[in-house]
Fold DeoR family transcriptional regulator.
Amino acid sequence: MLTEQRKSLIMDRLRRDGQVVAKTVAEELGLSEDTIRRDLRELAAEGQLRRVHGGAMPLAPELPDFAARRTVSPSVKRALGRAAAALVRPGQLIFLDGGTSTAEIAKALPRDFSFTIATHSPTIAAELEAHPTAEVILIGGRLYKHSMVAVGAAASSQILLIRPDLFFLGATALHPIHGLSTGDLEEAAIKRLIASRAAETFLLATEDKLDHVSPCTIMPISDISGIFVQSGLAPDRLAPYRALGVRIIETQADGHDGS
């Protein structure tokens, strides 16, 4: 088998299983583990996967600071935000996670009826300063500056007092095997707590987050109600997520969406 064929097979296994074990692949192909380890090193150098002891895992996405993330895929995030905001109904309690995608939801929220927004992000609360009909509950605690959200015991105690109708969750990565994940353990715990209190949880996911794994697990994909994604993604990119029974909402750039 040619080197490129082996590498293609390794990447197929990684997408299918969420990990690659060098010994298992070597036995399957009748090759030495050294050959497979060399392939894994080369794939890691090419930025295709992340080497770990005994094999490989999907890449962890880069974690630029909050200001830098504002410049990433702004038109896609606007379309996702408009589609998500369309779910909001009069009188509901909505929890908005921190992040640049959820900020687009805040900007697109309806202005012709009343509802309440809870958030542990001061930047999200600031987006709603001039909103005419939204009541805002700001959850406090220790500020995790990378994501501009409150975390820790103080935030947790306040979240336990509310039961949101909808939670719009942010994550740095999602993977059909490894679920939703983020870069900070306390932030992951807060997201998990909010989801446990909410009637429904939705994720806004730009393409760069698909099939990646960050260090701290939030929850399995199957535990959320739906994922908003941009239109035009290849069907095989979304098939593993659909197979988990989660609703996939594909959003057009003009703000129309379909599933």
The two ends are 40 Å apart (CA to CA). Confidence is low (pLDDT under 50) at residues 255-259.
